[in-house]
Amino acid sequence: MQDVLPQEPAKKPTGKVSFRTARNAVLRHPIIFAGIITVSALVAAGVWMFMPLPKNTAASVLQFSGAAPRVINASTENQIDLRTYGSLQAAMLKRRQVLANALKNPEMEKAPLLKQQTDPIAWLDKNVQVNFSAGPEFMRVFIEGDQPDELVAILRALTASYLAAVDQRDNGDRKRRLVLIEESITLQQAEISSKLKRIDVIAQSLKTTDGPTLAIMESLNQDELRMARREMLELEKSKKVLMAETPIEIGIPKVSPGQIDDALRREPAMLQAEIKVNTLKQVLRDTESRYEPGTVNSSITRAKQDVKVAEESRDKLRLDLRTQVEISIIEQAGIEAKLKANRYKEAFDALERRRQISEQEIQTVVDKINKHGEYRLELEKLRKEVSSTERVLGSLTDERDRIRVEERAPSRVSLAEDAFVQSGVEGMRRTKMTLLSSIGCFLVGFISLVAIEHRGRRVTSATELSQVVGIRILGSIPVVKSDVRKANRILIESVDALRTQLLQSRSKNRPVRTVLIASGLSGEGKTTLSGHLAVSLSRAGYRVLMVDGDMHAPTAQRLFELPPIPGFCEVLRGESSSMDAVHATPVPGMFVMTAGSWNMATRQCLVGDRWGAVREALQQEYDFVIVDTAPLLLMADTLLLSKSVDCAILSVLQGFSRIGAVALAQDRLKSMGVLVLGAVVNGAAADYVGDYYGRYKYGAASNKNEADPIPLIIA
Asked: What is the pTM of this model?
């Protein structure tokens, strides 16, 4: 039956304290509230009577400048706002060193009060007060006591010590900064000097530091390098050509016959032999010319014989000299070959030496170019570093000069008003302390009382219950403080309104026939509500059975004066039939089933499906089954019964039920899948209902027709 009406999610009780809660705390605990007021008054009286307060106040006023005074405008000192600066100065005033220096002031001789203190510094720290009531730029220093002269002396000494500390701090900071800046200037100057010396060394190496001149020198070095490399290439070519012309090896030279013949002809002996032969041949020709051709005589024969002898002698000499000449030619050729080889080697060695010299020259030029480039880069870097360091040095120098000027500037703190004495402060302080103590005591007590009431919040109205818990309010059964007749009529109308809503729920998709009446705790009117609802339904013409499901503390048997057994427990255990356990009542159409005698077997039947079967059987006989139950938060039987009902209604007693218990009961029912129709508030204050009801005239009321009365069931 859980789909009859949609269920809204339950709200958790809010933790906010409302005005109603505070009012209820006062109304429910008037004696405690009166005790809180009494204790607060006693505390106020005690503070007023026993709090010793001084009669005089000595004060001096110190003024802060909106900005630190300067001689020149430019400054890099940190600036802070007056409020922050004032807080720092208030803390500085109470520094232990400042207080100790104040005690050394001759003015303190006029304050014997301090000599009586075991720890004068701690006494000053506790009693000297500071405020900025006149504005953030005025610091008021004051001290309270009975002797005005002593107070003035103390304040003057303390003010003088504080101003001296301020001056020391301001000028001390400047001096410390000046020392640091001087050290930085010295370091920067040393760094510049070191770099300038290095620049001079580079200038001596390069012979100049002028940029265009260095560029020309670099160009000349590049030209020299190109020429050296060109010469190197020429030497390499000459070396290759010489290597191609050089003989691979020197062996025994070969001599041709022509060379030998030429050498023989050049021999002196051969020349003489040849001349002799030619001379004799000439003699032979001259001799033959004197005679006829073909003439033979002794002169011609002797001339021919001489020519022949000369030729033979010549030929023999040639043979004799040929070997000697050949050997001589060979020896001469070997000597010439060695000489040529030596000349080639000397030429090759000369080229190699020139190549090595050229290579060294190239390396020298390259080294010179590289060194020149390194020097130029280093020179440029040094110049940039010197320029940057000079800028920093300039800034430091400017700051040093500014600080030296600012040392003559006035202090940011000045004495605006010397120590003075004023009276009349005691009354205001005493009144304030008295009021604060009284109000504080009252608030502590009242808040504690409201917290106790809030922790155990009770239902004070149907509206509050709906807003806090989020449960639907089906109706209320009011308490009427008028005559019984009017009370009966109002009660009838309230219960009939609840019956109408139940019937409206029944007219939805599925019928609502078994209704569970539950409450979180006992004494919340669930039995009264069950009886009234059963009577109202029977008056509407329905057969209604009221089942007493509170098997541990049954009440139906007492209210209707019925025998206790057999009852619901016996029906569940199968020991009795439902017909034997049901009893008729004086109300037509209304029947009651008492609780019976409970034991553990009964609970086992509830855990099983026995209750569902009994409910089905009862619904065959009755239009509605109203089940009164045990307290939901105290007994598990109610949750077991809720498994087989169509819906549930929570009974709430105004002024008694706790909101947390109602919310928890609703959550438990919904966790079992039970449709919670809403809650009915019992005991609602409704005098206004009675007043207006008495003025409303309709037939039955005007004729005072009191037929069909409704019995009042009291739990």
From this structure: 0.43
